[in-house]
Write a structure and sequence with these properties.
170 residues; mainly alpha; 8 helices; globular
Length: 170
C-alpha cells in the first residue's frame, strides 16, 4: 500500500501538474502580465514560490547530508529571520525575478521542483515522519516541510487561477 510519504509526494506532484496545465493554456503575454488586484503575474508567482522552495531544498539537503541547513543567499541577505519579514523579502524576490526572462524563471522553478522531489525520495518513511530526528527542524518532521510546499503552491495557484487574465496578443 501507499505510505504517508507516498501520499505527500503524490500530492506535491499533482500540485505541480496543476500549475503546468494552467501555464500550458496561456500565451507568453498572459504568463508575464500583472494580474489584479495584487499586480503579480504568473511568472511573479513562480519566482516567489521558487525562492521559498530553496529553503525547503536546503532543509532536505541538510537532513540527507547530516549538517545544518545552508539557506540561499536571499534568505540570509541582511534579514536575520526572513519568515518574520516576509513583506520586504517578497518584494525583493519579485523585483529580482522581474529581471528574468519567462523561460529562465520557468526553468528554475521546474529544476528546483525536480530537485526537491529527488531529495524527498531519499528518506525512508521513518526518517520522513520523525519529528525528533533533526534538532534544527524544531519539532517538525520532513513531511511537514513538504506539506508546507504543497499548501504554499496551492494558495498561489488559487490566487493566480481565480484572477481574470488579460486577452492574449500573441
Amino acid at each position: 500500500g501507499m505510505t504517508m510519504q507516498d501520499h505527500v509526494l503524490a500530492a506535491v506532484h499533482e500540485q505541480h501538474e496543476q500549475w503546468l496545465r494552467l501555464i500550458a493554456g496561456l500565451s507568453e503575454t498572459q504568463r508575464i502580465a500583472p494580474l489584479q488586484p495584487v499586480g503579480w503575474s504568473i511568472k511573479d508567482h513562480l519566482t516567489h514560490l521558487n525562492a521559498w522552495q530553496q529553503r525547503s531544498i536546503a532543509r532536505l539537503d541538510a537532513a540527507a547530508q547530516g549538517h545544518e541547513p545552508r539557506y540561499p543567499a536571499w534568505a540570509a541577505d541582511g534579514i536575520a529571520d526572513p519568515e518574520n519579514a516576509t513583506e520586504s523579502v517578497n518584494a525583493a524576490i519579485i523585483a529580482a525575478g522581474r529581471q528574468l526572462a519567462w523561460n529562465d524563471a520557468f526553468e528554475r522553478w521546474t529544476r528546483d521542483y525536480q530537485k526537491l522531489m529527488i531529495l524527498a525520495r531519499q528518506f525512508d518513511e521513518m526518517q520522513f515522519l520523525d519529528s525528533d530526528r533533526f534538532s534544527w527542524l524544531e519539532g517538525y518532521c520532513l513531511a511537514a516541510g513538504l506539506l508546507g510546499t504543497y499548501a504554499h503552491h496551492q494558495e498561489h495557484f488559487d490566487a493566480a487561477s481565480n484572477t481574470p487574465l488579460p486577452p492574449t496578443l500573441d
